[in-house]
Amino acid sequence: MSRRILHVATNTSHFDNPAHPTGLWLSELTHAWDVFAARGYEQRIVSPKGGQVPLDPRALKWPMSDALSRAWLADPAKMALLSATACPADINPQDYDAIYFTGGHGAMWDFPDDECLQAVTRKVWEKSGIVSAVCHGYCGLLNTRLADGSFLVSGRKITGFSWIEERLAGVSREIPYNAEADVKARGALYEKALLPFMSHVVVDGKLVTGQNPFLASATAGKIASLLGGI
């Protein structure tokens, strides 16, 4: 039976300042999708509100050499997947072997407090599925609690976009919170690379996380390796 992956993407199209656009960092989806597609996995995209997923314009310019994302943008069928995403309420967690939270700064706004997403994540986890995220995707795990009331991230190793990377990206004064500090406050054992924007993927049992936008393929590869053993 084919493995099934549920990708989570943001619906948020701008920072608090409407003149500052954001959205999904496209390569965080496309690179993971490619890894899973090569293994014949079934894939679906969900977003907090369902429907359209906006794309962060910065991700479409940097890096310009991202062939996978350029190919996605040129493929009407692939782009249609981003205009008609499912709502969390329409998802049966029992159907999925892994949930994968993509990033982009938009995720900071609509991921953390979405109770339907939290319920899907909890049920995937508690049926021994894989919970994963790359970059700002870990904002979707900040407030997810397990059946016993504990935070899913509590006592577990995790990574995600760091505070120093926010500062280097020039947006630390525009984002709504410090995700690195908040995940630590929930008891997570946060890790990061010695230098910003370097490779760092963390696997703690069924929890798989990548630190920054360049690690979608590496994160997906770790997920696929774990699925091979499920």
At a glance:
By secondary structure, the protein is α/β, with parallel strands linked by helices. Helix content is 30%, strand content 13%. The chain starts with a strand and ends with a helix.
Reconstruct the topology from this structure.
Blueprint: E1 4-8, H1 27-38, E2 42-46, H2 67-73, H3 76-83, E3 98-101, H4 107-110, H5 115-126, E4 130-134, E5 157-158, H6 163-168, H7 179-185, E6 189-190, E7 201-204, E8 207-210, H8 216-227
Parallel strand pairs: 1-2, 1-3, 3-4, 4-8, 5-6
Antiparallel strand pairs: 7-8
Helix pairs in contact: 1-8
Strand content: 5-15%
CATH homologous group name: Class I glutamine amidotransferase (GATase) domain
- In whole angstroms, how far apart are the ends? 12 Å
Count of spatially separate domains: 1
Written as H for each helix and E for each strand, in order along the chain, the element string is EHEHHEHHEEHHEEEH
Oligomer: single chain
Low-confidence parts: none
* SSE-based structural type: alpha/beta
Arithmetic mean of pLDDT: 96
- The CATH architecture category equals 3-Layer(aba) Sandwich
In total, the number of strands is 8
- Look at the structure and give the CATH class: Alpha Beta
Report what the structure shows.
The protein has about 230 residues and is α/β, with parallel strands linked by helices. The chain has one domain: Rossmann fold, CATH 3.40.50.880. The protein contains 8 helices and 8 strands, in the order E-H-E-H-H-E-H-H-E-E-H-H-E-E-E-H. The strands form 2 sheets. It has a 6-stranded mixed β-sheet with strand order 2-1-3-4-8-7. It has a two-stranded parallel ribbon with strand order 5-6. Helix 1 packs parallel to helix 8.
